[in-house]
Automatic annotation (TrEMBL):
NCBIfam families recorded: rSAM_slr0320 (NF045585)
Pfam families: Radical_SAM (PF04055)
Upper lineage: Bacteria, Bacillati, Cyanobacteriota, Cyanophyceae, Leptolyngbyales
Keywords from the named record: Iron, Iron-sulfur, Metal-binding, S-adenosyl-L-methionine
Domain Radical SAM core span(s) in chain numbering: 231-465
Statement: the UniProt record of this protein carries the keyword Iron-sulfur: yes
Keyword 4Fe-4S carried by entry: no
Name of this chain's protein: B12-binding domain-containing radical SAM protein
Cofactor: [4Fe-4S] cluster
Length: 524
C-alpha cells in the first residue's frame, strides 16, 4: 500500500499549527509522491471530535498517523481550564477566609477535572484513530509528538498503545527514516512496549534540517481548514526564523527540546514564506523562535531578515516575538519599528541583576534598559509585555524592591500604559536546572510524576516556596480582589506599597561574592 500520512492536530487553543505544517511541507519536498492530509481538531466543536476524526480516516485511509499534541501543562497566569488555575491554587493555599478557600478548592477540582479529562480524551482520540485506521490498513503506524509529548515523553509512554512511536522535539528526520524504511531509533524517539527511552534522551542534539520556505500552495491542498486562521484580522500567524537556544535559564525547557545550537533559516526563505501568507491577506506575523535574537552574534541575521521584509514591499504588516532586549542596536531598533513590530515580550524574570545571574539567564539588565531607550527613540510606541517570575531562586524583600525599581524605569521609558507586567509563578518542568535544584534541596524526589496534580504535588510544582510564598499568595489574592482585569499592574502596586522601592542602581549591580550561581548539590 502506498504511504498516506494523516497529521492529526489534537484539540488545543486556536493557535496556528506551524509544527505539523512544517512537517508536512518537509515530507512533500523529500517525497513528492506521498499523499498527505492535515486534520486540525482545534477547528472542530468538542462534541464532534470523535465523529470528525472517524470521517476523516474513513475518507483518507491513512497508512501512517502523526498526532501533534501541543498542551498538557496547566500552570499559567491567565484563564485556562475551568478558569484561572493560578488564582484557584492561591485561593486554596493562602486565603484566610474559609469561603474563599472553599471557592479555590472547588476551582481546583474543576481544573483537575478539565486537566485529566483532556488528557484521557486525547489518549482516547489516539487509540480511536489507530483502531479506525486499521480497518483499511492493518499495518498502520502512529507517531505522537509535539510540545506536550517532548516534555512528558517518559510519562505518556505508559498510556499510549503498544507500537506507538513517541517523538521528542523535531520530527522531520524521524519521518524521513520511517518513509525510507530505515532504522529510526537513533533519532530522539522510542516505541511503546518495544523499546524504552534512553536516559536523558531529550538532551541529545537534534538532527539538523535545512529549512526552506513553506510551500503554502501545497499546504492549501491538504488542509481544508487553512482559511480558518486567515479570517480574523487580529490573528497572528507563526513564521519560524531559527531553531535552538544557546542559554541555560534555570526553568526553561526550550534549550533542551530545540538544542543549544542555533540554526538560522535563510532570510530569503523566511521572507518568501511570509510573502505567500501576505498575498493571502495575512498582515500579522509572530516569529515563533525561542528568542528572535538569542545572542549578539545573531543581530546581523535579524537585521538582514528585516531589511529583506522592507525590500519585499510588505510595508503594512505587524509582527511580534519574544526578544532578548539586551541584543539590540540603534540600527536594529530602527528596522524593527519600520517593519511594523507592534508588540514584543521580554522574559527578564526579575529586575534584580543578582537573581538574573543566579537563574543563569545571561541578561545584563543595564544593557536592556539602554536598548529599550534606543527602541523608544526609534519610534516604538506600542505594547511591551515583561514577564516576571517572582520567588524562583533566593528571592528576598530587597530583590523584590529592586524588581519594582526596574519595572518603574521601564514604565518611564515606554509609558506606564504600554508596559504590561505578566506575573508568572514557574510551573516546574522536567529536564530543567530548576528540577535538578529541587532534587538537591529535597523539595522533589527522583521518580516523581510531573503529570500528577494532586494538592500535595501542585504546591511543589507551582514554584512559590517559603519564606516568601505566603507573602506572594496574600499579594496576589489582594490584586485579584482589587483589580482582576489588570492583575499584573496591581501586584506591582501592592508590592511597592508594602515593601517600597529600591534605588535603580542597586537593581543593576550584582556583587560577585553574594551572588552564587544556582546550586546543583544539596546545601549544607
Amino acid at each position: 500500500m502506498d504511504n498516506r500520512i494523516l497529521y492529526v492536530r489534537l484539540p488545543c487553543n486556536p493557535i496556528f499549527p506551524i509544527g505539523v505544517i512544517y512537517l508536512a511541507d518537509h515530507v512533500h519536498k523529500q517525497f513528492p509522491a506521498v499523499e498527505q492530509r492535515l486534520f486540525d481538531l482545534g477547528t472542530v466543536p468538542p462534541l464532534d471530535y470523535a465523529s470528525a476524526l472517524d470521517t476523516c480516516i474513513d475518507e483518507f485511509k491513512p497508512s501512517l498517523l502523526v498526532f501533534s499534541w501541543r498542551d498538557i501543562q496547566i500552570y499559567a497566569p491567565v484563564g485556562g481550564r475551568g478558569g484561572n488555575p493560578l488564582q484557584h491554587t492561591f485561593e486554596f493555599y493562602y486565603a484566610r477566609n474559609l469561603l474563599v478557600k472553599l471557592r479555590g478548592a472547588i476551582g481546583l477540582l474543576r481544573v483537575a477535572q478539565g486537566y485529566y479529562g483532556e488528557l484521557w480524551r486525547n489518549l482516547g482520540l489516539i487509540k480511536r484513530g489507530m483502531k479506525r485506521a486499521r480497518r483499511y490498513n492493518p499495518a498502520v503506524r502512529a507517531v505522537v509528538g509535539g510540545g506536550a509529548v517532548s516534555v512528558f515523553y517518559e510519562q505518556l509512554g505508559r498510556s499510549l498503545p503498544k507500537g506507538t512511536i513517541v517523538s521528542v522535539g523535531e520530527g522531520e528526520a524521524l519521518l524521513e527514516k520511517l518513509l525510507r524504511s530505515k532504522d529510526f531509533l537513533d533519532e530522539r524517539c522510542y516505541v511503546v512496549g518495544e523499546t524504552t527511552a534512553r536516559d536523558r534522551m531529550i538532551h541529545e542534539v537534534p538532527t539538523p534540517i535545512e529549512k526552506t520556505a513553506c510551500d503554502y500552495s501545497y499546504i492549501e491542498t491538504i488542509w481544508s481548514e487553512f482559511d480558518y486562521y486567515l479570517q480574523a484580522q487580529d490573528f497572528y500567524v507563526g513564521v519560524q526564523t531559527k531553531r535552538g537556544c544557546p542559554h541555560n535559564c534555570c526553568y526553561c525547557i526550550y534549550t533542551v527540546i530545540e538544542g543549544k545550537q542555533v540554526r538560522i533559516n535563510p532570510a530569503e526563505e523566511v521572507v518568501a514564506e511570509m510573502r505567500q501568507l501576505y498575498d493571502r491577506g495575512m498582515r500579522n506575523f509572530w516569529f515563533t523562535d525561542a528568542q528572535l535574537i538569542p545572542a549578539r552574534k545573531y543581530i546581523d541575521d535579524v537585521a538582514e531578515l528585516l531589511q529583506k521584509v522592507l525590500d519585499a514591499g510588505m510595508s503594512d504588516i505587524h509582527w511580534a516575538a519574544y526578544i532578548r532586549a539586551d541584543n539590540l542596536t540603534p540600527a536594529l531598533c530602527d528596522l524593527m519599528v519600520k517593519t511594523g513590530m507592534n508588540y514584543f515580550e521580554i522574559g527578564i524574570t526579575s529586575g534584580s541583576q543578582e537573581l538574573v545571574r543566579k537563574m543563569r539567564m545571561g541578561y545584563n539588565l543595564r544593557t536592556v534598559l539602554e536598548n529599550c531607550r534606543d527602541l523608544k527613540a526609534a519610534g516604538f510606541n506600542d505594547v511591551v509585555s515583561v514577564n516576571y517570575s517572582f520567588n524562583v531562586i533566593d528571592e528576598r524583600p530587597e530583590t523584590i524592591r529592586q524588581t519594582i525599581a526596574y519595572h518603574r524605569e521601564l514604565e518611564r521609558i515606554f509609558g506606564a500604559d504600554k508596559v504590561e507586567p505578566a506575573i508568572f509563578f514557574i510551573g516546574l518542568q522536567p529536564h530543567t536546572h530548576l528540577e535538578t535544584y529541587a532534587f538537591a534541596q529535597n523539595i522533589l524526589k527522583p521518580g516523581y510524576d510531573p503529570m500528577n496534580i494532586t494538592p500535595w504535588t501542585v504546591r511543589k510544582l507551582l514554584w512559590n516556596p517559603e519564606p516568601l510564598g505566603s507573602l506572594f499568595g496574600e499579594v496576589c489574592l489582594q490584586a485579584w480582589q482589587q483589580n482582576p482585569n489588570d492583575f499584573g499592574r496591581e501586584v506591582m502596586a501592592i508590592l511597592e506599597q508594602r515593601l517600597g522601592r529600591a534605588e535603580l542602581e542597586t537593581a543593576l549591580t550584582a556583587p560577585i561574592s553574594p551572588a552564587k550561581p544556582l546550586a546543583l548539590s544539596r546545601s549544607s
